[in-house]
Amino acid sequence: MRKFIEFRGPADYFHGRDEIIHPFLRALDHYQSCAAGSVFLIKGPPGAGKTALMSELSRHAEAIGYTIAGNITPSALYDPAAMAKKLGVPYTPRRERGGEVNAKIVRLFRKKETVEQSSVVDIIREAASSNGLLLLLDEAQHIADLASPSSVKVEATSTLNMIHNGQVGRPVILLAGGLGTTEMAFESLGVSRIEDDLRVRLGPLDTTSTRAVIEDNLRHQFGMESPPAGWIPTIAEQTHGWPHHIMCYVEAVRQVISEGGEKPTQAALGRVLATGLEYQLAYYQTRAHGIARNQRAIIAQLFADQPIGGTIAGKAVMDALAEQYPREDAVEVFRRALRQGILDERTDGDYAIPIPSMHTWLVSEYGPDRSIEAEKQDSPILHSYKKELRARQDLGR
């Protein structure tokens, strides 16, 4: 198995997501005109392209005058010094009576030094111009960690609510991206009722956008001015439109064509598909880290008779785990599966395995005698590159 490679950051070639970009642009214009702001939330499983989308949205915001604050950390939501450092605002801690007081303004009144403390919102207001400020918070599900101690929760809640309710006094938008649990994390800090237009559940790219990303990479990275017939649709089919999987196969082309020196023949395509599959399988193993094999099997058996994308009630998953593990362990396994993207909550409150090929992998690898049936359903090209993959694994033994 090849070493897992994480594909994160801005996309070299971005396509699609117009259904998200257009509402975001409307929000930018609206809040810029009324000097207000809110939270714009993007949630989705790992590998859905949240970070790349946030980068693209930032580019649009900057083009109309917003100042972009690179990725802030959860601590900046309650710590004025951390936020000031991130936004480049002068901020000098001042010592008083042997202790350190975070002070921005020091006034003299009746010969006595009085300290006026700055809140995080004061720092944000100072950094924001009349054209607006866009704060980026990636991996936003981690703000759930701010729920304790109570002093941290109070400060973070105050900051988030003032941004969410447009009370900073300047156009300020918090662009937050995270896993499916992110909305619950915001609710734990008192931020609820995020408007539908400002809340996005990120799924796969459409077929046209998927093929466009693959074509751009083949042409511009690997010099294929006329990619061989069948390459783009064949690769696109295996990715299911998931940006991470697209990059798995782009990396596979690099391995086979650029570094391996092969010509883009049909045989080379088979090796590209086999190599891309290796990266996908390594990705799934990484996502399932910390979930024991038997625990994976319990989840797989629940989904064995479900179609791709089929959902199961969270209680059914919990009850199945609790049959073999203490309830508190079952709860932790369920939460880990959510955090790591093995499971994802749907709009109706039930849960699905978010990526079609991850569903197939989990059921065929850990389900009840499903591997043979899954193999029967393979397309000829899929069967071919699985055969190539098995041959590689046999050579490595």
Walk me through this protein's architecture.
The protein is an alpha/beta fold and 397 residues long. It is built from 16 helices and 10 strands. Strands 2-6-7-1-8 form a 5-stranded parallel sheet, with helices on both faces. It has a 3-stranded antiparallel sheet with strand order 3-4-5, with no helix packed on it. Strands 9-10 form a two-stranded antiparallel ribbon. Helix 10 crosses helix 16 (380-396). The protein starts with 17 loop residues before the first helix and ends with a helix. Residues 103-115 and 371-377 have low confidence and may be disordered.
List the helices and strands and how they pair.
Elements: H1 18-34, E1 37-43, H2 50-63, E2 67-71, H3 80-87, E3 92-96, E4 99-109, E5 112-117, H4 120-127, E6 133-137, H5 150-164, E7 172-178, H6 182-188, E8 199-201, H7 207-220, H8 231-239, H9 243-259, H10 266-287, H11 293-303, H12 314-322, H13 327-339, E9 344-345, E10 351-352, H14 356-366, H15 371-376, H16 380-396
Parallel strand pairs: 1-7, 1-8, 2-6, 6-7
Antiparallel strand pairs: 3-4, 4-5, 9-10
Helix pairs in contact: 3-4, 7-8, 7-9, 8-9, 9-10, 10-16, 11-12, 11-14, 12-13
